[in-house]
Design brief:
alpha+beta; seven-stranded mixed β-sheet
């Protein structure tokens, strides 16, 4: 395609016509010539806004882009309403590829009852492969907003599902041929399907009702990065039992194959939480069919310590995600 805005006929045919999910709060949504979206909220509601780019994979980029941003909104205790998409496309892109990307995004939005309310699509020589940046808009009742900074000394640290789900799925898709030299087709397919567990919206909803004090979805930098960010934001220390951190066998084996650390691998699908009564929160989550466990406690001071039986080590600030060593 030629550099510049996506042509209007393609915009109408392969982008706008793929958007079907509507929300009553949206007064002005995606349309030709509209530069802004407009959303009506109640007097006791607060806007919650988040933005994220997807750059580490080309596989299922439309759905992944939506899910990551919706997870951010969920971690604030907010109900997602709409998303704005900025899509930068390489010159080699074809119209069917654009349509598929938008259809992926719309399917992810439909599952969460979220409307694509606007954005921008452009073909540019600045990118070698498609890049999607999503800005998500959500709402939360006044006084119900949850932040990463809500952890206090003595609180339990809870983790949902398993670390490394997103990174494992991406690697299994992007590096399938290499993995086939060691693993079976069924093993790789199981790992690829980890992308079906990336939403943390259900656990966020349960946690808010259960009285959670802080939430942080585990993304770039993996669980080690997320733990550091939670502690740094809240001004607390941590004592974490490494062996209590849940991880799938497929993740362990794929990380061993590529020589990367699963604890520093992008991990959307897992939510890190702090609560005064972590055991109660875990029980509430399990009643909703969501795996969770207490992995440690928030402590006074600034020491963020990982225990592995007799071994004791300190957490460090987040590093470059392990995913970028592979894809």
């Amino acid at each position: 395609m030629k550099t510049g805005k996506v042509p209007e006929n393609i915009l109408k045919r392969s982008i706008l016509k793929q958007i079907h999910t509507k929300r009553e709060e949206v007064l002005v949504g995606a349309a030709v010539g509209e530069d802004c979206a407009a959303i009506q909220l109640e007097e006791d509601e607060i806007f919650v806004i988040s933005t994220d780019p997807i750059t580490g994979t080309a596989e299922d980029i439309g759905s992944l882009a939506i899910q990551i941003t919706l997870n951010d909104l969920a971690s604030a205790g907010a109900e997602p309403i709409g998303v704005l998409l900025t899509v930068l496309l390489p010159e080699e892109i074809t119209e069917p590829e654009i349509r598929q990307m938008v259809q992926q995004a719309e399917e992810a939005c439909s599952k969460a009852n979220v409307q694509i309310i606007g954005g921008h699509t452009e073909v540019t020589t600045a990118v070698k492969r498609s890049v999607i940046t999503v800005t998500g808009v959500g709402k939360v009742k006044r006084g119900k907003l949850i932040s990463t900074s809500g952890a206090e000394t003595g609180m339990d640290i809870v983790l949902t599902k398993w670390i490394g789900l997103e990174g494992t799925s991406i690697i299994a898709k992007e590096k399938k041929q290499e993995l086939l030299s060691r693993f079976s087709e069924n093993f790789i397919l199981r790992a690829q399907k980890f992308d079906q567990m990336l939403s943390v919206i259900p656990e966020a909803a349960v946690a808010v009702l259960s009285g959670v004090s802080a939430m942080h979805d585990v993304t770039e930098g993996g669980i080690f990065g997320a733990l550091w960010e939670l502690a740094e934001s809240s001004g607390v220390g941590l004592e974490i039992e490494l062996k209590k951190i849940p991880v799938k066998q497929e993740t362990i084996e794929i990380c061993e194959f590529f020589g990367i650390n699963p604890y520093e691998l992008i991990s959307s699908g897992s939510m890190l939480m702090a609560a005064a009564d972590g055991n109660r929160l875990v029980m509430d989550l399990k009643k909703a069919g969501i795996a969770a466990c207490v992995i440690g406690k928030a402590t006074a001071g600034n020491d963020r310590i990982l225990f592995n039986e007799e071994e004791r080590r300190f957490l460090e600030p987040p590093k470059t995600d392990e995913l970028y060593k592979v894809v």
